[in-house]
Amino acid sequence: MHVTSPVRNPLIQGGKTYADVTEDICRQVEGPATKEWKIAFGLSLIVLAYGSVCLAWTWWEGLGVWGLNKTVGWAWDITNFVWWVGIGHAGTLISAVLLLFRQRWRMAINRSAEAMTIFSVVQAGLFPIIHMGRPWLGYWVLPIPNQFGSLWVNFNSPLLWDVFAISTYLSVSLVFWWTGLLPDFAMLRDRAVTPFTKRVYSILSFGWSGRAKDWQRFEEVSLVLAGLATPLVLSVHTIVSFDFATSVIPGWHTTIFPPYFVAGAVFSGFAMVNTLLIIMRKVSNLEAYITIQHIELMNIVIMITGSIVGVAYITELFVAWYSGVEYEQYAFLNRATGPYWWAYWSMMTCNVFSPQFMWFKKLRTSIMFSFIISIVVNIGMWFERFVIIVTSLHRDYLPSSWTMFSPTFVDIGIFIGTIGFFFVLFLLYARTFPVIAQAEVKTILKSSGDNYKKLREENKHSHHEH
Amino acid sequence: MSTNKVIHAIYNDDDVLMDAVRKTRIARHHIEEVFTPFPVHGLDKAMGLAPTRLAICAFIYGCLGLTVATTLMNYIMIQDWPQDIGGKPSFSYIQNMPAFVPVMFELTVFFAAHLMVVTFYMRSRLWPFKQAENPDVRTTDDHFLMEVAVSGNEADMVSFFQNTGAVEVKVIEKH
Fold first, then answer.
1. What is this model's ipTM?
2. At what angle do helices A76-87 and A367-386 cross, to 10 degrees?
3. Nearest residue in chain B measured CA to CA from A165
4. What are the mean pLDDT values of chain B's consecutive 10-residue runs (175 residues total)?
5. Domain B5-37+142-173: which CATH class?
6. In a domain, A147, yes or no
């Protein structure tokens, strides 16, 4: 049996047995909805409804209802797109990269982190479709034979690479998540008391029976999917950064973009995981599984990736100066001191300065402080995309085209609406899905559960006495 | 005399189960199946199961994806409608390849991941509306069930499994 060192803190607290794990995870699904959940769900639905109205107005009237103009042709929609895709990086990172590195603490959080990934990539995927203005022609981005002559999509375009990257990422994340869910749905199915829930979980669990051969294949599939998902997750934001890096706009045409975007994505994704799980562990009574140590480890990842992002910002400034290219130099000077200085300095404060507090153990183990920083980080990461996109565009090559961008209520409404949609999906998930990968947690219970660790210590001491 | 009888020996601890599986194999009883609520490491080896070949499948599917991506883009961008984009004419796939690498990579991953998962679902007979086949509902919670074919003296076998630490031993007529 695998044994972890006694100096490692137990990952599962509260003296849990296998049956306790089952009980604790099923309770969220089987119990009645709490008042807080209903209020949160109602609010999210209202926000989603408002966003849908704004969206319907956009499609009815046209993209002219947005704040875009001839100079700034890309603004909130692409900012939101990149922001959501970035947030969607943490789940696969936690479930795939941490699996390859054998980090056992991922097991308590991977299910919810992956759920968050899928729901945020769904929000991200909406924006290109919304921006098409005529979403019913969305299939034009696919390489399919058609009646318009030999008109094909352009495989030299990073926007098309994005279509492939995002759809591969979304679909692979979804099957990775679902495969992991099968044994847990089977647990819910075998405990279900009403015929309806039994039927639903029976369908969802695909008839999972837990044979030794199934588990052998399950583990192999998880490992290979993790191996495939690791380069995939890095490729997604790399390709998103190509949307900018392969253009000729000063401030975008930068070779540092791929690693810088990936670090930023992990940064914002972990912040969002912290935001959601700090609430969830409290509301769903999962403190024994999602411990302070989990929060602390995520804060360390936030601190490191935030620092990488900070180095990238400073490198950009240095390279702009060192390149000797006037346009490039102006683009960065304008970011920091131009009319959008407030966006630039909000970004700097939120992304570079605020994570540095995590060097202090007292702060990174404080739940309230972690929660506040996780929100601050995501505000900062939204501003990062806004700064890159809008401040680079609003000063065109021709000074006569110089302008400012201000969003209309429709721009804002659609963005807020996707936040509502995200929370609708996440709240539904929290009530109907097993929010912790119980089968995986049970595999580490004997090596990392506090009761088993204590028992092992006691046995060791008694052996020494003999 | 052939019977359709099987013994269901139910355990409530994975370490006890592992010992029982080893003892059963040594005693030359035929283990039909073991149902567990979570992956018990080393169980497949203890039961003598052959290693899975799904990783090899994934590799083959990945190669297929790469081939599909190459064929698709070569047809679209080079053969059917070559264009001169930014002074870089599309006359040869290999010379234009850097721009095609992202899609080649994505389709390799897409094919490898999805076809492997589909193969897994087919081989392990998992799909929507498939009925579960675990004989005891506790095997998805905290119990472990070993199914062993009955051969020879039934009473001896039952006492053998009781001695392996099973919390429950049942003899079942299987159809």
1. 0.94
2. 140
3. B106
4. 79 92 91 93 92 95 97 92 85 91 96 96 93 90 91 88 90 82
5. alpha beta
6. no
